Every structure is written in structure tokens, then in C-alpha cells.
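C-alpha cells in:
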């Protein structure tokens, strides 16, 4: 490593025992941004892969879970740090280690407006009011192993922020996980790329982008959102090889770049760890009645003609539904608070007959025939 960053590190941080060789080894996974803070020009480094950051402002190392420079949320003297103890927003000067109440409120106010930024089959935004009576009011950690559109997380995020609590969001779809990570960590870069897609959108471009296999995280995330906003019915579907295969939708002027959705979502996601992993991995983390888990799996089909049980290459049929029930049974034995959504059919009601089962009224929004997008009932299992 060379240049002004190396000079700053060797001249300041090495004097405080900072391991420059170790830092150089991980530098390939770091993203750098140079900002002018007050009258001092400092390098601000935030990690977009390993969730460990350093803020060498004023030659002061800061060890934290993630460090994100957030000019959109606070003044240009402020860094947002999420630590194991919740939020600690610190200026680059080490003399002010804790955020003011006003800064905390600013983040919370922005997160209040957060809502799902992608279309997702079975999204729960319109069902939150019916879920409220069954949501626990006192818990320490929130888990959502089938991330999807994240509606319940975004509803809970202001509460999590205000109370300094953590969320653990996960999914088996690597493209979806990457999108959420980019919105959380590099939202401005993502907005820039989406604005290009917005300006260039056409049928020819849609199929060209669909055929591309991006490797850069921001390019991948922008591709995902672009296809999500412009494909038929907003449906996410992959073939057996993992390739997105939905045709273009019939939209006159689709909103592809939506900073008013992405920035609040980024603020809300600062409380979240976001991982690619199977739903059963929640058993590694949830241990007590202080944990709240919400499962929103692919729904069991209501009939033989609706057997679409996976939006990615991974099937979610009866064996997986039963495996999920066993996971929930183990969580119940640990006294964890659990909600699980599914279709209203005899198989599901029998599956969760040992738990409290509530009936929820929902609207089916994704169907090839508009006449079949009507009111249906779903079940909500409560543990």
C-alpha cells in the first residue's frame, strides 16, 4: 500500500500500535472515501465485506463492527458507528465519543419513513396492522430468516434504533442478501448506478441486463433492483441454474431509482446484520425468551394448479415446511417468541395445530390473471 493513506497510517496509527501489515492484507475488501471534515482532511475507511471498520480521523483508530460515513443523515463531522452496545455516533475527533440525543433522533426520524424498497411476492406491508396484536413488546434481538421485502423489519426498525437493539436478517438468495448489504453500506453508490438504469431503460436494455452476470456488489445490486422494478408483475423467479428468467413487464415509466425509499431503508438497516444462510441457522443464535423470530417462508400451494413453491433455484415443498415446523418447535422449547406466516390450507393448519393459529385477511397481488388478484385468508402461527 502506498500514497497518502499509507503515509497517514504509518505516521500516526503505527505509533499507537496499529498493525499496518494486517491492515494491508484486508485492504482489498475495503472501500475508501476522502472527505473534508471541518478544517482537517482525513481518510474515512468503511468495510463493505467484513463488517469491521477503522476511522483514522486525527490518527485515532476506532474498532467497531461497522463504520459508515453518513453525510446524508448528520453533519459532515459525524461518523455513524454501530457497536456491540448499539449505536455510537462519533465525530472524527476522539474527544467526543458519544452521539448527542439529537443525532440519535435524526437517525430514528429517517428510519420511521423506511419501508420495503423492492417488490416481493407475499409482501407484508398491508398486513402489519393485523399482526400488531401478536407482536411482542419486550425483546432484545429480532431475527428474520426469510428476508424478502422485509416489511416487518422496517416497521420494527425505529423501535430497535431507539432501544439500541439488533436485528439479524438472512436469506438463502445471495442476490437478495447482496442488495440489502449494499443499501445498508453503500447506498449513495447504488443510487448513482440506478439513476443510469433509469435514464437508459428500454426493452432492449432490460434483456441485456437480464443476460449479464455482474460480479461487483454495487452492479449486482443495481441489476437486481432494476429487474425487480421492470419485470413482469415484480416477480422474482430463477430457473434451476439460478438465472433470473422473468420477462419484461408492461410499465410506461417504472420508478427504478427511488432515493426517497433507499436512504431511509439504509438508515433502518444500520441496526442489522445481513447474512446468506438457511433458515435453520437461526437455531445457532436464538436461545431465550428475549429473542423474537419471524418466519415468512414460501407459502404452501393452495391447490395442485398453484404449486409454485420457490422464487429461487431452491425448492420449498412439504419436507421443507415440516423442517421449518421442527425448527419452530425447538425455538418454542427455548421460550423464544415466534411468528410464522403461511397459506390457509388444511396442510398448514395441521402442521401448526400445536400452536396458536390466527386467521389473517390478505390480498393476492401477484397472479397472471388480474381477476384472481383478490382477497384470501392466510394463517399466522403464534408461539
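Residues out:
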Amino acid at each position: 500500500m502506498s500514497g497518502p493513506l499509507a503515509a497517514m497510517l504509518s505516521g500516526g496509527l503505527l505509533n499507537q500500535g496499529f498493525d499496518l501489515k494486517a491492515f494491508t492484507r484486508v485492504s482489498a475488501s475495503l472501500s475508501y472515501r476522502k472527505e473534508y471534515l471541518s478544517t482537517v482532511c482525513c481518510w474515512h475507511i468503511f468495510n463493505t465485506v467484513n463488517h469491521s471498520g477503522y476511522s483514522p480521523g486525527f490518527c485515532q483508530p476506532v474498532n467497531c463492527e461497522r463504520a459508515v460515513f453518513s453525510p446524508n443523515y448528520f453533519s459532515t463531522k459525524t461518523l455513524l458507528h454501530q457497536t456491540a452496545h448499539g449505536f455510537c455516533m462519533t465525530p472524527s475527533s476522539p474527544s467526543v465519543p458519544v452521539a448527542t440525543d439529537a443525532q440519535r433522533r435524526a437517525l430514528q426520524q429517517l428510519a420511521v419513513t423506511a419501508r420495503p424498497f423492492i417488490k416481493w411476492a407475499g409482501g407484508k406491508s398491508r398486513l402489519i396492522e393485523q399482526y400488531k396484536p401478536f407482536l411482542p413488546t419486550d425483546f432484545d434481538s429480532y431475527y428474520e430468516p426469510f428476508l424478502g421485502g422485509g416489511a416487518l423489519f422496517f416497521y420494527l426498525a425505529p423501535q430497535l434504533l431507539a432501544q439500541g437493539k439488533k436485528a439479524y436478517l438472512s436469506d438463502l438468495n445471495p442476490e437478495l442478501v447482496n442488495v440489502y448489504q449494499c443499501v445498508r453500506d453503500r447506498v449513495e453508490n447504488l443510487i448513482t448506478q440506478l439513476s443510469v438504469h433509469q435514464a437508459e431503460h428500454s426493452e432492449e436494455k432490460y434483456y441485456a441486463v437480464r443476460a449479464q452476470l455482474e460480479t461487483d456488489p454495487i452492479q449486482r445490486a443495481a441489476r437486481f433492483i432494476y429487474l425487480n422494478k421492470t419485470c413482469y408483475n415484480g416477480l422474482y423467479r430463477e430457473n434451476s441454474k439460478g438465472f433470473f428468467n422473468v420477462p419484461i413487464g408492461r410499465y410506461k415509466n417504472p420508478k427504478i431509482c427511488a432515493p426517497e425509499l433507499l436512504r431511509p431503508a439504509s438508515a433502518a438497516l444500520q441496526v442489522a446484520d445481513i447474512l446468506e444462510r438457511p433458515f435453520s441457522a437461526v437455531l445457532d443464535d436464538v436461545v431465550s425468551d428475549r429473542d423474537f423470530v419471524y418466519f415468512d417462508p414460501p407459502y404452501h400451494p393452495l391447490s395442485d394448479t398453484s404449486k409454485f413453491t420457490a422464487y429461487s433455484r431452491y425448492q420449498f415443498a412439504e419436507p421443507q415446511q415440516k423442517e421449518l415446523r421442527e425448527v419452530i418447535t425447538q425455538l418454542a422449547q427455548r421460550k423464544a417468541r415466534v411468528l410464522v406466516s403461511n397459506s390457509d390450507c388444511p396442510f398448514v393448519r395441521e402442521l401448526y395445530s400445536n400452536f396458536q393459529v390466527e386467521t389473517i385477511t390478505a390480498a393476492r397481488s401477484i397472479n397472471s390473471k388480474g381477476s384472481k388478484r383478490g382477497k384470501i385468508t392466510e394463517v399466522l402461527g403464534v408461539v
